[in-house]
Each structure stands twice: as C-alpha cells, then as structure tokens.
Design a protein that fits this description.
mainly alpha
C-alpha cells in the first residue's frame, strides 16, 4: 500500500478527499440555531413595523405562497435527509462500487437512471447526493442523480400524465429532456469540475450497530437544521417574487417563441414549485407553447430558488456559481430541441 504514496490517479480529482467538508469544534446545528433566532426576531419586527405599511392582500398572498412552498417541500426534505443519513451510516462504500460502474464516465448515465426509482423532489435530492459523495461516489455521478431524481421519478411522471391527459408526448418529452440534461451536466462536471469547488457536511464515522445508529442520528440532526434554514430562505424569496412580478408581463410575451421559453424557464426558477406539483401549473399556462411549458417542467426541478439555496448550503458558493448556470443553460437548450421534435 505504501508503494503508492505520493502518486495520484485521475480518479483522485473525482473522489472527495478524506477531510472533505470537515468543520470546526462547534456543535452541529449551532449556527443554524442562531440563524433561526435572528430570523424569528426579524419576523416579529416585520410584523410590528413593516406589516401595517403593506397592503393586506399582498401580505396574505406572500404568506400563503411562503407557507405552501414550505409545507410542500418539508416532507420530501425530511425524507431526503433520512435517506442521506441512512446511506452514510448503514450502506458500506462497497455497495456503490458494485452498483455503479468503476469508470466515472459510465457511472454518470447509470446514476441518472437510478433517479427514476427514488420518489422525491429537489429538496430530497440534495442531501441524498451529499450522502453519496461522502461515501466515495464520484461527484459527477452523484450530481447526475441530484438532477435526475426529482424530474424523472415515477410520482412526477404520473403527475405529469394526469396534468396533461391525452398528451403522452409531454410525459415522454419531460423524461427524455430531463434525463439528457442530467447526464450532460454530469459529464460536463466530470470533464471540467474540480474537487476543491465542492464542500459537503462532515459525516461521523463509527463502527458497530450502536455507532451506526449514533452516526445516523447526528447526520439527521445536522442536515435537518442546516437544510431547513436554507429552505426557509429560498421559500421566502420565491414568495416575494411571486407577489412582485405583475401577471400582465407573463401573458404579453406568450406569443414570442424564444422569449416565451426563456420567460417560463425563469419563472420556474423564481416560483420554486415542487416537482410533484409543477405539471399542474404548467398545464394551466395554456397560452404558452408546448416547448415553453416543457422548459418550465425541465428547469424547475433542477434550478429554482430553494434548490439554489440548498446547494449553496450543502456544497458551497464556489460550486453553486458554476453548476447552476451550467444546468440552467443545458435545461433550456435541451428543452428547445426536444420541444421542437414533439
């Protein structure tokens, strides 16, 4: 084993280093608890001094959207955190080496296909992807799973079929476009991504049944506090934008092909609708073309405000400023191509 000390293989840049995401001695969730306290104080101050100056109708709309986004996403976030903690604590690294091909390039499409079997939204996919990386799965494969899981899982496809009755090409188009974007993004990260751009929360390592249960508990506690705070921030931003953007601006560009695609792609980012529900919103936008609505369905589960906040919180800003624009551009471009074929 020591004969290889000092040598690096190409895969060394793909797998996380041993101290990846290591944090200081502060207890898990301490900073998140302080942030929650500051947020609570801000809400009290806003209710006291800001709310009286805001029209009741707009304030009610903001509160309704904010609560709806949080209530929609929280169960899937908890599910994703539980799956991530279970992966970390109970699944040995050898399992992933058996399931995924050894070559990262081949592991990317396999990881994308695995996204079709795990129900959940984008809130669930972020902590799950973090758990996979912490277990030594190549980041490119884990990121492919992150993008594919909320877009092509059975619940989302069934919801799309229900929202677009008699229009099976929309279901097929969503599946094909989303899987293609996820695989292309994974391969792009494999070619140009760097390990130092990524950061994930540290995971406790313990042996024995009791140790694994403790590792599971600690990972659950840390990720719930950590991801939950960013979910609240993203939901608040999405609610504010939904109230501020005038509805007339949306319908004015519905008849312009490229502009309508870009508009619905941008609205998908800003509205931050859970992937299990976005098909019904897309179906209601009947004034837009099939291609524009497909872009809405492809972009939303991969790039929205709460997902951006979660990715920044889990993987760091250096990752987010590179991966999010890449994903958005791929999603828009692939949607236009697939939509043109429908």
């Amino acid at each position: 084993m020591n004969d290889h000390v000092g040598l690096r293989s190409p895969e060394d840049d793909l797998l996380p280093p041993a101290d990846w995401g290591r944090r200081g001695p502060a207890a898990p969730g301490t900073r998140a608890a302080w942030a929650f306290g500051v947020l609570a104080a801000g809400l009290v101050a806003g209710r006291t001094w800001v709310a009286p100056a805001v029209a009741a109708r707009e304030l009610d709309a903001w509160a309704t959207i904010f609560i709806a986004v949080c209530v929609q996403a929280l169960p899937f976030l908890v599910f994703g955190v539980a799956v991530s903690a279970a992966i970390t604590a109970f699944v040995p690294p050898s399992v992933w080496r058996r399931v995924l091909p050894r070559r990262p390039g081949a592991a990317v499409p396999v990881a994308g296909a695995m996204g079709a079997v795990l129900p959940g939204c984008e809130c669930a996919s972020v902590p799950v992807a973090g758990g996979l990386m912490a277990r030594g799965v190549a980041p490119a494969a884990a990121l492919t799973f992150l993008l594919a899981a909320p877009a092509i899982n059975p619940i989302v496809l069934v919801a799309t079929a229900v929202a677009f009755p008699g229009n099976p090409e929309m279901v097929a188009g969503r599946f094909a476009a989303s899987l293609l974007v996820a695989v292309l993004a994974g391969w792009a990260w494999l070619l140009w991504g760097k390990g130092e751009w990524l950061r994930v929360p540290a995971r406790p390592h313990a042996a024995g049944a009791a140790g694994r249960l403790e590792a599971f508990r600690q990972a659950m506690r840390h990720d719930i506090m950590h991801a939950g705070g960013f979910l609240v921030v993203g939901a608040a931003a999405a609610a504010a934008i939904n109230v501020v953007v005038p509805a007339g601006w949306v319908t004015a560009v519905a008849g312009i092909p490229v502009a309508s695609v870009l508009l619905l792609a941008l609205l998908a980012v800003l509205m931050s609708i859970c992937s299990e529900a976005d098909a019904f919103v897309a179906a209601s936008l009947s004034q837009f073309s099939t291609t524009a609505r497909l872009a809405f369905l492809v972009v939303g589960p991969m790039v929205d405000l709460k997902l951006i906040a979660l990715q920044v919180g889990f993987f760091g800003r250096r990752f987010a400023v590179r991966f999010i624009p890449l994903t958005f551009c791929l999603a828009v471009g692939v949607s236009m191509v697939i939509g043109g074929l429908l």
